[in-house]
Amino acid sequence: MSKKIDWAAFDLEWYKKRYQRVLSFFNLVEDEAVRDFYDQKGAALKHSPNPFFDEAWYLMRYPAVQDLIAAGEFKTGFDHYQRVGFWAHNPHWLFDEDYYRRTFLDFSREKLEESGIRNGYDHYLNQGSRLLCPSSMFFDPSFFLQEVPDFSFDTEEGPYVTLLRSMPDRSLYSKRLSWYFDPEWYVENYPEVQTDGPLWYGPLHHYLANSEPENYDPNAYFSEKFYAQAYEDVAGAVKHGAFRNCYEHFVKCGQYELRQPAVDVKLRAYADNPKVKSEVAAQTYPSFFVHYMAHGGIVEETGYTPEEIEFISKNVYQSMCRVRLPLLLRANLSFAYEKPDLSVIMVVHNNFAMTMTALGSLRQNYTGQIQVILVDSGSSDEVRHIENYVQGLDVIRTLGNVGFLAGCNEALEFVKADYTLYLNNDLELMPHAIEAALARFAKEPQTGAVGAKLVRTNGLLQEAGCSVWRDGSVSGYLRDQLPDVPEANYVRSVDFCSGAFLLVQTKLLKDLSGFDPDYAPAYFEETDLCVRINQLGLDVVYDPAVVVLHYEYGTSGTLESNQMMLRNQQKFIEKNRSYLENRPVRQANQVLHARSAYPATKRVLVIEDFLPFRHLGSGFTRSNDIITAMVNCLGCHVTVYPVFRPMGVIEDTYTGFPDRAEVMWNKGMEDLAGFLKSRPGYYDVIWMARTHNAERLAPILSECSGALAGCSVVLDTEAVAAGRELQKWALRGEQPQHTLEEMLQKEFRAAGVARKFVAVNERDAATLRRLGMEDVSVLGHLQQAHTAAPGYDARKDILFVGAVHDKDSPNLDSLIWFANEVLPLLDGKLPDAVKFRVCGFVNPEIDLKKLLPHPRVDVVGRVDSVTPYYDSHRVFVAPTRFAGGIPYKLHEAAAHGVPIVASSILCDQVGWQSGQDLMAAETGRAAAFADAILRLYQDKDLWEMVQQNELRRIAQENQPEAYIKTIQHILAAPKGSAWHSC
Questions:
Q1: Are 311-594 and 603-778 the same fold in CATH?
Q2: In a 10 Å sphere around its CB, with 0-12 CB exposed, 13-18 middle and 19+ buried, how is residue 147 labelled?
Q3: What pLDDT was estimated at residue 978?
Q4: Hey, which CATH number is domain 311-594, 3.90.550.10, 3.40.50.1950, 3.40.47.10, 3.30.110.70?
Q5: Which intervals hold domain Glycosyltransferase 2-like (predicted)?
């Protein structure tokens, strides 16, 4: 039986070999002298006592241990590890105690100790190593032996033990020891590793033992900078020492959560590939990330060309139509109607199974009354008897195949509904398509026609609206792109949409006499119709909520289609020369301009920390209001761009903003330079939210100055932060490290990137002007007074609305103070049934229920609508102890007619009168706050006066007309040059 390996023992022979030069210098040969030297000097020189414990690395990895040594509690890092660190700390950079125990030793500490095993390292050195178990993510013996097949190791000890005893052999440590670190890539990208060679065993040692772990990437597939920016939770954990760097989090947690490790490594999408899934499930690769690295992110293709793949997908679609046919024949489809909501015109020539699939999809998609006018254009298959299978159809039969255009025009005479839908028979409707298309007319009365997002059977876009070019040619926007790209998912007024799905006002359609017969039998007829609608001043709208799976060319051969297109294009040019004169020249850099039929009043790029959903609070609600006003009231084209990239499509990405806003959910600050350069000269205004983003974005805007010609930059400060920071210092009873002026200078040191500035109130505006900013506007909050708000008797309970993003949040501070200091003062004075309800987004890492232990507290969290809560609560509280700007929640509560008790700093910010417009209590005085709540809650006359006054304040100070006019003024071209680089 092999001798037990003891990580706690001093290995004399190894020590003599490892530190031979130092021992020779002191002329130390005798064993006892060597031992004494280690105890008296070697340990202080960060010498390791054996090959299994790295003293220098241990002290670097756990800096708190150095403090304990300095305080005299431990002699060395090894002493600390032996006595207390062995369970939670790692002894060597190639071993991970937590990883090994979780992976191979699923036993409690007591169970291990019963077996005579002190920790995972004890087990690994004596068993795991010889069983070829990985010691960490960075050393996999099986992988290592494939890289170094001639490595000779003691089978009783295993590769890990043998490797650590190897004095160290730098040729071995330069090899790849696991999937997770690429030494060749590392040396190529960080050549200083070679220069500093004597300090390191090899590239991996440098990566795991250098003093700046966040400055180095381990391989081509992970970016520390990107990961920290994309995942603030991880960056915070690294900052507080929970992980050495972001990669440590990723290899331990993030890769299994399918977090994105680098800009161009879309791990979640990669993991959806069936081939990848099966290989990872079969444990051929330990994770999706390892599979990605092993294949360079490329899944082996079948060898088919894109054309062949689409041909196969079309055949599969036809096969599925045949599979569905028996079910549809037994389904008793019915389109019987009395007063139809819409009329559908479908021209059909053969292909019975596909036609039945289209009709089945139509019936399932919309349950209201539909008139279906089916034009049987000379069919020779079972379409001739389609009335036997589908009830309520209005069937028109023609002599021979008259084609799409003639068939549609003949059917138009029989249309009975207010809206007419041209619908191909080679498609399927995705859920709610008809409902969404009809809703567009109600939402935007200037709409003449609505078209769909057409997706081909291969899963790629056919079009997201279509463009007409000056030379009369046409193109489908984003053809061959994925349907979920942001550019395809916002509403636009376009030149035209395909007649495969085109919903038109019937009166308008009849006034225009339908399609121009000169384009018979097909192609360019819908282009010409839409252009004529546009010329009448009505919109042809592309609506991404209307999604259609389109077989494409299902009723005509490709060659025939192309011939008809070429012939009719010339007719289109001759008939629409005046329209074509105003369209862009067909060039790659004009695609963005051509995707919309009309130029926007302004094209604005709004950059915020995160996508500004209303439920996030903390100024994001205000940003959302600004975007909404720009789009809905001023006709701007707005692109919403987050500094911190969202990970995947958030469920309310498209419902959280105006549907005509372009929301870049798939980008972040690291993509911004490339994004701006891909859109040269496109934006009129960059609206930069929050002062701290000026410093982040200034270098990027400077780099992209050529693409920003003619573009002005607006810095919306949202709130001046310096005063809030001073309030926080005062609350802690600590002396500020800087003066207010110094903090202001630091806060606005990058403000020179902008020429226009926005403050949330006059006080902040005065500060900006004092700092030398000239063009400063004040833009507060948009609110409308709810004059029909419920009265005193219809309400009860106390309400707080606000988001809690982190532990440093002003809202969290105020809630904890209120629960601990104020609520106890209300006990015995308010009925026990009166609740304190907390609504708003809460970071999942923060447990408010534990932090707010008072029995009155009811934490609701994020709600879809705050209005029911405002309408049912009697008093709104805002106990904020430090804040900047103007709290949105005060204006929102006042607009809903909920009388407010607020801290005095908030009262000062809004400039309202305490005792009249709200009840103010001196900031931080619990007794005064409790007294104000009691007075307002119990005194009906006082309550009604405050409600009336606050509603009057909102009506006077938050008028939508003035708010919109201010935004319009800010967006106007600034004086002097358009863009200024700091």
A1: no
A2: middle
A3: 41
A4: 3.90.550.10
A5: 343-457
Length of the chain in terms of residues written = 982
Distance, CA of 121 to CA of 91 (rounded, Å): 8
Give the C-alpha separation, 672 to 683, whole Å. Answer: 13
- Quote the DSSP letter at residue 804: B
* DSSP state letters, 683-746: -SEEEEESTHHHHHHHHHHHHTGGGGTT-EEEEE-SS--HHHHHHHHHHHT---SS-HHHHHHH
**CB neighbours of 240 closer than 8 A, spacing ≥ 6?**
none
> Phi and psi of 883, rounded to 5°?
-165, 160
Place of tokens 């068939």: 407
**Which of 3.10.340.11, 3.40.50.11930, 3.40.630.10, 3.40.640.10 is the CATH number of 603-778?**
3.40.50.11930
The answer, yes or no, to whether residue 981 has pLDDT greater than 80, is: no
pLDDT > 70? residue 805: yes
Quickly list DSSP for 588-611.
GGGHHHHTSSS--S-EEEEEESS-
- Domain residue spans in the chain? 1-88, 94-181, 212-300, 311-594, 603-778, 792-957
> Roughly how many angstroms between the first and final C-alpha of the chain, as a whole number?
73
Alpha carbon 841 to chain centroid, angstroms:
16
Contacts of 969 (CB under 8 A, 6+ apart): 777
Q: Residue 593 class from Cβ within 10 Å (0-12 exposed, 13-18 middle, 19+ buried)?
A: middle
pLDDT digits (tens, 9 = 90+) for 71-85: 999 999 999 999 999
Select the CATH number that applies to the domain covering 792-957 from these four: 3.10.450.540, 1.10.340.30, 3.40.50.2000, 3.40.640.10. Answer: 3.40.50.2000
Tokens encoding 234: 């991880």
Query: CA angle 884-890-892, nearest 5°?
Result: 125
Tens digits of per-residue pLDDT, 653-699? 888 999 999 999 999 998 999 999 999 999 999 999 999 999 999 99
Per-residue pLDDT at 557: 46
